[in-house]
Each structure stands twice: as structure tokens, then as C-alpha cells.
Amino acid sequence: MSVVVYTKAGFCGQCKATETALDRAGIAYEPRLLEDQPAEVIEDFKATIGLTAPIVITDTAAGSWAGFRPDLIGTLAAA
């Protein structure tokens, strides 16, 4: 399973909640900062997922999403 979590620099409540939930579920993920991404990546996120941080990209049936989604983190944990 591949999980990448794009977060904002500094404090982001939804980002922290997502990382905490992933950690508690034992799901490994690669953290990345949105600010470090090229403009093309940000534009793709805007067009396909939205731009509410965090943005979570997976290769599972849970798909990819924006924001804190405990329901989808549960789906990842069950996979």
C-alpha cells in the first residue's frame, strides 16, 4: 500500500489529525509539504481532489481525498 500525505507547513489541525489517525491505525505514509510541490501538481490537486489540506493520495480502493477523513482512513486500515 502506498500512502502520501501532503500537508501545510506550520500548524494545520486537519493535517495533524490525519497523521495521528494514520499512525494509530499503523498505516505507513510518506509526508510531503504542499509548499514544496511544483505549480503543476497543485493545479492537478485543485482540478481533481480539491485543495483542503491535507491531501492524501493512495493506490487503494479508498482512493485519494482532501481534508481529514476518518472514514477513509478506516477503509485503509481494513485493507
From TrEMBL:
Keywords: Plasmid. SUPFAM superfamilies: Thioredoxin-like. Pfam families: Glutaredoxin. InterPro entries: Glutaredoxin, Thioredoxin-like_sf. This is Uncharacterized protein. It comes from Cnuibacter physcomitrellae.
